[in-house]
Write a structure and sequence with these properties.
single chain, alpha+beta, 3 helices, seven-stranded antiparallel sheet
Length: 144
Amino acid sequence: MAEFRDSIDIAAAPETVFEYLTTNDGLTAWMGRHADIDPTPGGRFAVDIAGHPVRGDFLHVERPNRVVVSWGFVGSDDLPAGASTVEFRLTRTAAGTRVDLRHSDLPDTEVRGHADGWANFLPRLATVGAGGDAGPDHWQPLPT
């Protein structure tokens, strides 16, 4: 299994960024077209991204510093629902918040596609977190 890591700085307080990770409207402002989440440990994590249903559970929720969810795709043999783990660590900085992302337990065949997805979605999170509008999302998964 492999891991993907990235980070981004956001011109907003961790409390603000945290809301974009733990509310339906917040999540869909930067990622996905539909979300149905319950941000409590063991609560559901369901978001539809570019027609792909991502499903898992909230594993850890520590306001406003850390969110961990299980992640995978309904019907996928390579990365089934809940098979990988996505962790967001939010650290207060002088300019706002640093978000460190770690997506672990990825099959090697899934790293490239998820790296491409996070390269699209993290800047969108930075935009909305700072009070902007990320606009419509036209991202599509890389062909396999």
